[in-house]
Amino acid sequence: MALPLHSIVIFALLTLAHGEPDLPTSSWLRHCEKDTPTPVQGVTEGVVPAWLEGRLTRVGPGMRHVGSTSYRHLFDPLALLHLVTVQGGEVTYTSKYLDSDAYHANMAANRIVVGGFGTAPFPDPCRTLFDRVASWFSRPPKIMDNCLVNVLQVRDQMVAMTETDEMRVVDAETLNTLGNKITISDYVAIRQATAHPHVDPDGTVYNLASSGNRHGPTYNIISLPNGEIEKAKMEASILARWRFHPGYMHSYAITENYFILLESPFTFSIGALLAGRYFGKSFEEAMVWFPNEKVHFRVIERRTGQEHPTTFTSDAFFTFHHINAYETSDDMLVIDVSYIESGEIVKALYYSNLNKSNTDPTKFKFDSVAKRFILPMGRCQRNAHRK
Ligand SMILES: [Fe+2]
Questions:
Q1: How many A from CA of 330 to the centre of ligand 1?
Q2: Ligand 1 midpoint to CA 60 (Å)
């Protein structure tokens, strides 16, 4: 998700811009009451090199509290856009709340009515018992455009993304939200897509999505030629290994000839997801980590959209972010990831856990290291052909 973790850098910059004296124990715990749409002049120490000019745009969690309700998880607060501009030796900082349907729905109700990854919507306290029972049989309104995970420059547009099928276009200079939300599933048959697409040198945007068919949940690679959503198409579709437990993948890897999906044993329970919609549960509460199961490296050939006949495996781990991937001249496929031992990391990012002291033995800890996996594609190709 850039995960909300990406906003660490920006929070640090924000601190510099405002010169805030009393830092909380963790910048992740911050709640932003009011955005700063008018650029704030930074205080410069030293000299900004004359050649250094440009913009750095990020998005992350901003508003944690709405009325008397609070988001429970770091991945959920209302999206706050950040812009650091360096020009002529001067540095300015601007922030603006994403003008999303989620933002407006929450503000109108003065409570969290659009939940998130680890926060279920708060029910209307005025609803009668009958209303609540009736709601079990009706679909909640679909508002999934709190795009707090990543921003991506696509041609001349800045797009804010999250891990649903909804995106928002943002003016890169003013941070104004432009037009209506874009719903990817209006153009290609998916249910959700990651917030970490790859842009090929030819301008095609590729992304990992998910959907399902009569055989079970599927992982999909979709493409947007020249970044145009109207031209979105399905490049590949492969079945998840478990019919009722698709793996959670936050990003994926791409090389000249392959898409690589790391299907970890950190999964969504389909049954728990369906039940959770009606019983006020969050997405996170439907997730299951199988520590004794393997990670499957699912390799898809870009040219054909077909999965490689060999499934490469590893002991269980989880990753949010891929670092790099490339092919070597001797047919090796190299994949570098930010390696996390357990999918339990998402529990560590609940505010109730982040608020605990580091010396508290009940606190979920989290850490990641860079790890490299090397897949011997050439050798496997030859073995596959001998079958
Ligand atoms: Fe991310």
A1: 31
A2: 10
Please list all protein residues whose beta carbon sits less than 5 angstroms from ligand 1, which is an ion: 1-3
Helices and strands per DSSP (H, E), number in the chain: 7, 24
The confidence score (pLDDT) of residue 6 equals 37
- The single-letter DSSP state of residue 142 is -
Tokens for 236? 């590949």
Distance from Cα 194 to the centre of ligand 1, integer Å: 9
Closest CA to 367 of 337, 342, 336, 340: 340
CA–CA distance, 358 with 163 (Å, rounded to integer): 30
Domain residues of the chain, as ranges?
1-182, 239-387
Ligand 1 centroid to residue 163 C-alpha, Å = 9
Q: Residue for token digits 């800890």?
A: 365
pLDDT in tens, 355-385: 888 888 888 877 899 999 999 997 666 554 4
Kind and range of the H or E run holding 211: strand 205-213
Q: What is the pLDDT of residues 175-211, one digit of tens each?
A: 999 999 999 999 999 999 999 999 999 999 999 999 9
